[in-house]
Amino acid sequence: MIKDFIELGDFTGEQLRRLIDRALDDKALFQRGELPPALPRKVLAMIFEKPSLRTRVSFEAAMTHLGGAAIYLSQNDIGLGKREATCDIARVLGRMADGIMARTFSHDMVVELAEFSDVPVVNGLTDHSHPCQAMADLMTVQEWFSATQRDRAPLHGRTLAFVGDGNNVARSLAMGCAKLGARFVLSAPGGYELDRHFVARVRSAGGDDCYVSEPDPALAVRTADVVYTDTWVSMGQEDERAKRQDAFGSYQVSSHLMSHAPSHAIVLHCLPAYRGSEITDEIMELHAPTILEQSANRLHFQRTLLNVLMGEGGIE
Ligand code: CP
Ligand code: NVA
Question: How far is residue 278's CA from residue 155's CA, in Å, rounded to a whole number?
C-alpha cells in the first residue's frame, strides 16, 4: 500500500492504469449523481507556496463532493520552513487533518511532509513535478481516443509531443507515458531539455523508445496524437522571462505548427496559458473542448485519488 502521491515514478503502470480507469468510472457516476460521498467529516489541509486556480478549486470541490472539507493555507499563514519547521507542520497537520495537499517550490519539502506525517500527502506541483496534472492529462487522452476512435487501448502506443520547456509538467508526463506504454517526444531548445538522469529513469520505466528528444518542433509533432504545451516561464522563473521568451520564440503551438501534425491530433495545455507566447489565441479556441475537459479532469481524477488515499488506506 502506498500512502502518498508524490511522483508517478513511485507507481507501477498497472497502478496508474487502475487509477485512470477508476477516475473515468467515478466521473460517470458523479455525472449521473450516483457517486457516494465517501469521506464524510474528513479534512484535507492544502498548503500553497505558489498561486493556483485549478489545483485549489479542484481539490476543494472534490472534498465537498466527497462530504468532507478542505482548508486553504497560504505561505503567509503558515511560513512553511520559515515560521515553523516542515517536520513539525507535517506532524501537527497529521493530527488535525486526514490528508495534506502541498504546492511548494522545493520538491524535498513535499517529500519531507510525507515522511513526517501519518496521513496521505499529495504533490499539488513542485519545481520538479506535477503528477496530478499528468494523470488528469492522460485520463483525458484515454477518454478522447476511446470515444472518438473506439480504441480499446487508447493510451498504449500513442505519441504525445510536448513542445516547450522541459519543466515539472513535462517530467510528470514523460514518466506517465513511459509507465502507460505511450511515447513522449520533447521538443525544447538547447539547455531546456530534461536532464539525462531523469531521462534514464524514464527509459528504464518504459524502454529506450518511449522517450525521444527532437529539437525541431515541426518534426516532433509529425506523428503526434497529442500536441502538448505549457508556459515557457514557470512560477518562480519570472526573472528569466526575457531570456526565455527569446529562447522559445520558435516553439509556439500555432496553426503553422499544427499543419505538420496528423489531422486527428488534439492539443492539450495544463493552463494557465499565455496566449501569444507558447500558444496562439486561434489554437487555444480551436482546441478549447479538449483543453477545458482536461482542466475539468483535474477535479475528476483528484476526487478519485482522495477517495483511494483518504478513504481506502492508499494505492495498492
Ligand atoms: N494547471 C494547474 O495546476 O493550474 P493552477 O496553477 O491554476 O492550479
Ligand atoms: N510549469 C508551470 C505549470 C503551472 C500549472 C509552473 O510550474 O508554473
Answer: 25
